[in-house]
Specification:
mainly beta, 12% helix, 9 strands, 2 helices, rod-shaped
Length: 268
């Protein structure tokens, strides 16, 4: 009876053990794959009007205690805001991972499209009128690609299902532009205008996490969330209505992005 019981236990246990061993260590190795999802970007911008000091002739404001300083306060308020946009993101990734028991650690890099683009215009009335009474500010931000290099640390809660955290460096190309115009128009003082822009590759940081499901020995699918912060850029905006009347504004803008995406990987 003891032999029969032992053989029965082995017979029952074999399919379970075979199933577990079939997926054991499914998250280690070199992988390549593709991903797609949505990106949500936010850029907060602010304007320093650059009111001229020392009684120098300015486009629209001189520094306090000059009465025109209130124009600078108005322009700064109009030139402060938030630009938000959402877009498709997708690309390719490659990585390498090591699995020790249920723990998985490794690194992954990816590159793909992330075309965020948004602009906003704000108009106002100068509190201290001169030849012109109204002004308009226009600010815009855009990106076209995203790349990350990240470490990964995960735990296989079942032989097929991995949960993981990830973090590292993020890269994108940011273009930010700002324009100014007012309606100070007469024979001697045409409307004040000015513009400035910057296009640069920004390095930031990213953190996130996800879940990965092993379909078989080679293929897996995953769902992932990333938060990326690229810091800020500053743009000088020289303005003038004549050569004798000018000033330079300074407009700064930051950029953060959130990504929600799914991917598929092939393990070698």
């Amino acid at each position: 009876m003891r032999i029969v019981a032992l053989l029965s236990a082995i017979a029952i246990g074999l399919p379970v053990a075979a199933h577990a061993n079939d997926f054991a260590g499914r998250f280690g190795g070199v992988t390549i794959g593709a991903n797609a999802g949505a990106a949500f970007g936010r850029s907060r911008y602010a304007t320093d009007p650059g009111c001229r000091r020392g009684g120098a002739n300015a486009t629209f404001c001189e520094a306090a205690p000059d009465a025109s300083a209130v124009n600078g306060t108005a322009v700064a308020a109009s030139g402060t805001g938030t630009l938000s946009d959402g877009a498709f993101t997708g690309g390719v990734q490659a990585g390498v991972n090591w699995q020790t028991g249920a723990f998985v650690f490794g690194a992954e890099g990816d590159v793909g499209v992330m075309r965020l683009q948004k602009s906003a215009s704000a108009s106002g009335t100068f509190p201290f009128p001169f030849l012109g009474t109204r002004y308009t500010l226009t600010d815009s931000v855009s990106t076209d690609w995203l790349a990350t290099v990240r470490a990964r640390l995960g735990f296989a809660i079942t032989p097929q299902l991995l949960i993981y955290a990830t973090g590292g460096a993020a890269f994108t190309r940011v273009e930010f532009a700002s324009r100014y115009a007012d309606n100070a128009i007469d024979a001697n003082f045409p409307g004040g205008t000015g513009s400035g822009s910057i296009r640069t590759i920004k390095t930031g940081w990213t953190v996130g996490g996800g879940m990965q499901w092993a379909l078989d020995r080679n293929w897996s699918v995953k769902a992932e969330y990333l938060y990326a912060d690229f810091g800020s850029v500053s743009v000088p905006v020289p303005t003038s209505n004549t050569p004798a009347y000018s000033q330079t504004m300074l407009v700064s803008s930051d950029l953060v992005a959130q990504l929600v995406r799914v991917g598929i990987d092939y393990r070698f």
